[in-house]
Amino acid sequence: MAGGFGIESSKKGVEYPGKVTSYVLVTCIVAAMGGLIFGYDIGISGGVTSMAPFLIKFFPSVYHKEALDKSTNQYCKFDNFYLTMFTSSLYLAALVASFFASWVTRKLGTKGIHDAWWVDLFCRSSHQCLCSSHLDAHCGSHFVRYWRWFLHPEMAPYKHRGSLNIVFQLSITIGIFVANLVNYFTQNIKGGEGWRYSLGGAMVPAAFIFFSALCLPNTPNSMLERGDKEKARAMLRRIRGVSDKEIEAEFNDLLAASEASKLVKHPWRNLRKRHYRPHLVMAVLIPFFQQLTGINVVMFYAPVLFKTIGFGDNASLGSAVITGIVNMMSTFVSIYGTDKWGRRFLFLEGGIQMFIFQGLVAGFIGWKFGLTGQVTDLPKWYAIILVVFICVYVSAFAWSWGPLGWLVPSEIFPLEIRSAGQSIVASVNMFMTFLVAQLFLSMLCHLKFGLFIFFAFFVGIMTVYIHLFLPETKNIPIEEMSRVWREHWFWKHYVPEVTTDV
Ligand SMILES: OC[C@H]1O[C@](O)(CO)[C@@H](O)[C@@H]1O
Fold first, then answer.
1. Among 362, 393, 386, which residue's Cα sits nearest to residue 310?
2. Per-residue buried b or exposed e for 290-306, using 16+ beta carbons within 10 Å of the residue's own CB
3. Ligand 1 lining (C-beta closer than 6 Å)
4. Cα 7 to the center of its chain, rounded Å
5. Residue 147 near residue 381 (C-beta atoms within 8 A)
6. pLDDT value of position 483
7. Cα 79 from Cα 446, distance rounded (Å)
8. How far is Cα 358 from Cα 242, in angstroms, rounded to an integer?
């Protein structure tokens, strides 16, 4: 039964039969393609903004400061409000969209939201054309992108839920890597128009998603929410790949949860109730902290960052490809380990590793660039070590906060507050992503190498926070999740044994 709700399941540790059917796999893969396009957008803009022809065309003042004025303090050479708006505006659009996603999901079901991808395709086609104006609006089509994956945790058998869910993050990292690679090659296109291909390339995954979205099914939960009982049963059977009889227990639990959730008239108000305090706190703090790892400094601005520390054009974009590969490959560690070692272990290990290597990056940059940001010669070994440090930091994020920052929130909400809770997660994530994207270059200019100490400080805090407040959620069916709070040393004061008010 949905955790923290009146009709709590008494079957502690209940096991529902189910296989990883091809249906589950295909559904997860197709849905995860949403991540691909998200990742592409993350990876593409930083590379483009480091390309001279792009800067000359749209940001000539930045170009002059960066390329021509050799006396410039290195920390500040890219600091420009409009340049960061070019990247951050995407996440502002996504923020607005994530508010509507909850409503659309309830009205149209999960499939309705997938089908809204045509909006995306349309916007992407216009994207490249619009690029000839000063600040490309970037299109508000991020509408549903961040939302959709959350709707699927119940489709995976709970013992594999972690690994399957992380396919979404994996696809984000693939998207980022592809974008890095595209930038690396387009920068050399003759005539200086390479950036057009980079930005226009986003249409490819958009088209893929449009066509594949047509085959995505609704989840059983979503069908139940809209009253299609028999269809929901058939879908659950298909997804689990077992007989009618074997899904009976799970179906009845889903049904009861769904009926209970229909009684809920005010999910937003409910979320503020005391026994949902742990959920609310996690919904805000997990995405908040995920972005305060500073990961998007590397993901968005790696080429700009590498140029800042003295790399040439090719080396900057090449190094971004390397961080992209590391990010992608390390996500497999999480896919392998999350259901084996648990969420807490990965969070804690990843946090400690990020803390150490962010400190090293800060120390290393500070050592050569000091407070003035003036530097004359940078030996090759220095550059290599710095890239290695950044890669070790990225790998830690990629097997911890990256995937788990989505996975854990997707599995802790009981059905009756799920859409409201997940709306908060997506909104906080997008808001923080926007802030980091918008403020990074200016913070680098003012805090200098201390910026990496700033992020390391938050990584320290979030690691302690996880240690103290996040219960282990591996191998717990979503319907039984409330017990992890009831058994937690702190949250048990908020989540009583039986809760009746909805
Ligand atoms: O792989 C790195 C990417 O992962 C995310 O945290 C999303 O989970 C993005 O904000 C980041 O750019």
1. 386
2. bbbbbbbbbbbbbbbbb
3. 42, 169, 172-173, 176, 290, 295-296, 299, 327, 402, 405-406, 433
4. 33
5. no
6. 92
7. 10
8. 48
* CA-nearest residue, atom 1 of ligand 1: 173
Distance CA 58, CA 41 (A): 19
Dihedral over Cα of 381, 318, 65, 451: its sign: negative
Query: Residue 137 — pLDDT band, cuts 50, 70, 90?
Result: very low
> What is the ipTM score, two decimals?
0.95
159-199 tens-digit pLDDT: 778 887 888 899 899 999 999 999 999 998 888 889 999 99
Structural contact between residues 422 and 150, judged by C-beta atoms closer than 8 angstroms: yes
Q: What is the number of alpha carbons within 13 Å of residue 50 lying toward its C-beta?
A: 32
Alpha carbons 176 and 41: distance in angstroms, whole number: 7
Structure tokens of 464?
């302690």
Q: CB neighbours of 471 closer than 8 A, spacing ≥ 6?
A: 344, 484, 485, 487, 488, 491
H or E element in which residue 246 lies: helix 244-262
Q: How confident is the model at residue 280 (pLDDT cuts 50, 70, 90)?
A: very high
d(Cα 327, Cα 343) in Å, to the nearest integer? Answer: 18
Long-range contact set of residues 25-28: C-beta below 8 Å, sequence gap at least 24 = 25/164, 26/215, 27/152, 27/155, 27/216, 27/217, 27/239, 28/152, 28/155, 28/156, 28/164, 28/165, 28/167, 28/168
- Strand, helix or coil at 414? coil
Whole-model pTM?
0.80
Name the one residue in this structure whose structure tokens are 């979320």: 271
How far, in Å, CA of 401 to CA of 470, rounded?
13
> Alpha helices, DSSP H only, in 342-476?
343-369, 380-399, 401-412, 415-447, 450-469
Amino acid 125: pLDDT: 33
**Smallest CA separation from ligand 1 atom 3, residue:** 402
Report which DSSP code applies to 15. -
- 3-state DSSP assignment of residue 80: coil
DSSP state of 64: I
Look at ligand 1, atom 8, and give the residue with the nearest C-alpha: 402
Q: How far is the CA of 6 from the centre of ligand 1 (A)?
A: 36
Sign of CA dihedral 157, 160, 161, 164: negative
